[in-house]
Amino acid sequence: MLPPANQFNAPRNVPSPTLNHTPAQVKQSPVVHYTFLLIGFSLLVFVLHKLHDLFLPLIYAVLLSLLLMPLVTRLEAWKWPRMLAIATSILLVIIGLGLLFGFFGMQIVDLRSELPLIQEKLGVLFDQTQQQLALKFHFKPMNHEQVIDNTLDTLQKQGSKYVTSTLSTTLGVLSVVTLVPIYIFCFLYYRDHLRQFMFRFVEPDKRTTVLHTVDNIQSVVQGYMIGLLTVIAVVSVMNAVGLLLLGVKYALFFAVFASVLAVIPYIGITVGSIIPALITFVETGSVAHGLGVIGVFMFVQVISDNILAPLITASKVSLNPLTAIIALILGAQLWGTPGMILSVPLSAVIKVVLDANKGTEAWGFLLGDVGDGEATKKDPSDDRGFMARLWDQLRGKRPPVAPEPHLPPIPGTR
């Protein structure tokens, strides 16, 4: 018979049936937390960079689907079948892009016919400039034909690389052009199914918040895309008027070309001004005319970034300039030119997601556009028209903002 249990032979580390033993929660060190966060972010960037052929068409399709959503919804309200409404919307986009590329193609063909004359004038200007610099700095000028021959030799040496790069780019564009309409059709056709999936995936107490966030993302992207198209149309007219007044050849082509580059914020129109300024300089031989063309584009750029874009798109995409510039750089490093185009709408989506979570709301506020410590949230009672808001913007008058909510006092403070 075993002896009775006492303090020496009693079993140890056995939970008592009368006590509720819950495992102690291990507190994670902030260093470990941020280390794992940095590793996860690095892996995400690596995957996005390596699988850009997959993600880029998907992102473009999502943005265009959100842009076409109001049109599809309107057609469905008119008793159109969903498949027919979606196909009609996609067909309208394809027709619009076809007309735009057709216009560009005809203008490029006409411009190509004048390239020999432009090359000859450029050679004359090159020789004249070299002669003036040689007299001033006492060096032996180069013949422009020698420069052309050296350039052709370099192109021939690098020809195989250029051909390979061109074929790769062409195949990539064809794949995107083929896949994006298919993705758009699927997203629009199965949008209710995707919404139900999200509704089932989220916990019941968080469904309202998540669906509200999704609606905000849809509103932000739609507002940005529609506003961007409006800005492109207005900027095209302003560029065309300025170039026609200066007597620039192919003014409409260069005006629309530079305006389309406005999808790249802050630098798009500036980059689009280089080619027309160079051609104008070669045609006229006047530096003032070339600088005048650049001045027109720079003036339109200032008007677009400081007046048109804030009035048309800022109510939906309230990102501060620092955030937009950093997003442009990161987008260029990640996906090149397509990344620069997608940087602003994706940053706006990230801001909406951050604003929806209490733990990350401060980061969303950091990305947002603020002035003098006041949020740029529009006052709901402000029902002024576009011209009134434009006049206030020209006068430098701040629009009315919504009143800040009264926060309860912090306990322990006077």
TrEMBL record:
Listed InterPro entries: AI-2E-like
- Specify residue ranges for compositional bias: Pro residues: 400-414
Q: Which domain of life is it from?
A: Bacteria
How does the record say this protein sits in the membrane?
A: Multi-pass membrane protein
Q: Where are the transmembrane segments?
A: 31-48, 54-72, 84-106, 171-190, 226-246, 252-279, 291-312, 324-350
Q: Where in the cell is it found?
A: Cell membrane
Q: Which UniProt keywords apply?
A: Cell membrane, Membrane, Transmembrane, Transmembrane helix, Transport
Positions of the UniProt region annotated as Disordered: 1-22, 394-414
Pfam families recorded: AI-2E_transport
Q: Which family does it belong to?
A: Belongs to the autoinducer-2 exporter (AI-2E) (TC 2.A.86) family.
Write down what this protein is called: AI-2E family transporter
